[in-house]
Amino acid sequence: MGHSLTTFPVQASYFIATLLLVLGLKRMGSPRTARNGIVWAGVGMLLATIVTLAYLPGVWNFTERASWHRLVLILIALAAGAIPAWWSGRRVPLTEMPQMVAIYNGLGGGAAAAIAAVEIYSGRAYLGSLAFPVIAVTGALIGTVAFGGSIVAFLKLQGLMGSPRISGRHVINGILFLVVLLLTIANIFPSWVPAFGLPVSSLVGVFLVTSLILGIIVTLPIGGADMPVVISTYNACIGLAVGFEGFVVQNPAMIIAGTIVGAAGTLLTILMAKAMNRSFMNVWFSGFGDVAAVAASGGPARVMNSMDARDAAATMAYSEDIIVVPGYGLAVAQAQHKLWELVQMLQKRDVKVRFAVHPVAGRMPGHMSVLLAEAGVPYDLIYDLEEINSDFVNADISLVIGANDVVNPAARSDKSSPIYGMPILNADQAKQVLVIKRGTGAGFSGIQNELFFGANTHMVFGDAQDVIAKMISGLKEL
Length: 478
Description:
- This protein is an alpha/beta fold and 478 residues long.
- It is built from 18 helices and six strands.
């Protein structure tokens, strides 16, 4: 085996791995080639990992006891990461995919911070130019903050944590940020702070713990409806942290992969914020969850018109054009397969059926498109907001399943609403609206949906899978 990560075989392998990653990401841009793209990118990352391990210095000299020790630790680390990831990846339902993405994002940030900590503890980060400690410490900061924030995002999406209102949170965040900034400078220039009387190891430890707390505190008050933006932001941060640490350890694969992930996450964050017509700063610091909860708590009670599932099925059977709007409620009920069965039955009756997907539908970017694809829905029946929004006015029925904010007309008409100005699907403009929903409560964001009280809206209450099963039975009886 080789003994250097700078040899030609290693560099050539990293180049091939990077090429596979870029091509894989390119193919992920289309639902038709996304699965293939994931395989390409995965093969690239596997190649980089194997080559790095094969040419890692000080590991393959079996005449030395230390080499055996290092190899055992590496294999334990690989098994500790690969086995749970493989098991959870195969077993996790699509309803829990957002929180899995959040926690795996966080682990990536934690790994980048751990690499930085090792380089700083050992003193290797200070051996080169000033750029090395600056990049190492900055990468540690970004990775640790993203790690803490991603844990909070995971707990929120898993339903284990709410969005508490923290009095004076902006002041707390400001103080924490200043402390972290001072600790960042202290770790970049440890010789400047002899008055602290702390060894470098203690200084690094305090810095990492404080950064972790900052990530947790900043993310804690953010409402669940903003989780898509939170996840994509931390994704960008983690990519940046990995790229920084790749520069410190002189690993081209880490630099390129981290840069690509950071750029992709940044673009996705911009697109998500644009889809909600909100600025990045508004998402992170406006206390949207608090405002939404207050907005939903007041006002007189109103009546929702309801309809039986079989009556709704009959209405759809004699329609010509139906647009289906899926939301997270569809994922929770795991009703995507039943929905596709219903759509196929309607198509056999010559009913035109299409799917309208909002950019922030679900709990993470692309959640609904993946859900529908998993059920076998053809890609040419799935339309983005810009492609289909003008067609609602000519549709006989818009069938809304578990969606809330993305079809709320208050975004167009109520200037006091927290979602005012957010682009929505014009489901309310169809001749008739059928909404499948468990109960009369507000959605995940806590905002009451004006669509549910519309004159042309009928609620079909119940679990989405049960309701759709009754609709299918109703169609068979016609």
